Amino acid sequence: MNIVKLYATTSTNDELRSRFRESELTHLTTVVAYKQSAGKGQHGAKWHSEPGKNLTFSFLLDNSKVCLTPFQINKWITVSLVSWLKNHLGIKAEIKWPNDILAVNHKLAGILIETVYSGSSLTHAIVGIGLNVNQDEFPDSLKAISLKLITGKQFNLDELLFSFIQYLNVSNYEIKEFINDYNSHLYKLGRTLNFKYLDKPITATIIGVTENGLLELMTTDSQYLTADLKELKWFY
């Protein structure tokens, strides 16, 4: 298991991408940083994390080892993280489509997946994860929570990281099961919520996710919709 530990970097995704360009890296090579100055979320959003309190790391996925589509990668990683939280820490978490992990209706982790292609073939993915671990306070606007706030316990960051990467390595052999289990972990599946869709307020029920990763909704007036992240805003 190849884990590179850094005190500081702009973004672990950027750091791993730079190292990948310069040399051959093995499947699940991981870069973890004590501090990120420009941690990234989805669509350029900034990831907020107190230095030394949380896990901010990225790992390389060699797609020749798993042969997945971009959304299958998302499914595998999100389900693996939720399953690991339950099996190893006793924490019930859910996947808030498309890339957030929630516990008790608050954001516990975020995932950013950046794909690498050779021609039309997806060869690798750089998977960044921010997991709130020992942080005690968050801005109200983030609606976030940490493992410590949930359990009252302090966690060793190195031990958590090693445990998760090891779990992910083992889950390599059960990828289909993890992917098929995605909907059972989907936040608010079957629930009717208020959204803003294409800048218009709607009330709709979450009914699933398409194979391409679009959220499936059924409105209160029986209209079937699919939406990507740019088209839809949650109210939860």
From TrEMBL:
PROSITE patterns: BPL_LPL_CATALYTIC. NCBIfam families: birA_ligase (TIGR00121). This is Biotin-protein ligase. Keywords: Ligase. The lineage of its organism: Bacteria, Pseudomonadati, Bacteroidota, Flavobacteriia, Flavobacteriales. Its EC number is 6.3.4.15. GO terms for molecular function: biotin--[biotin carboxyl-carrier protein] ligase activity. Pfam families: BPL_LplA_LipB. It comes from Nonlabens tegetincola. GO terms for cellular component: cytoplasm. CDD domains: BPL (cd16442). Residues 1-176 form the BPL/LPL catalytic domain. It is an enzyme of class 6 (ligase).
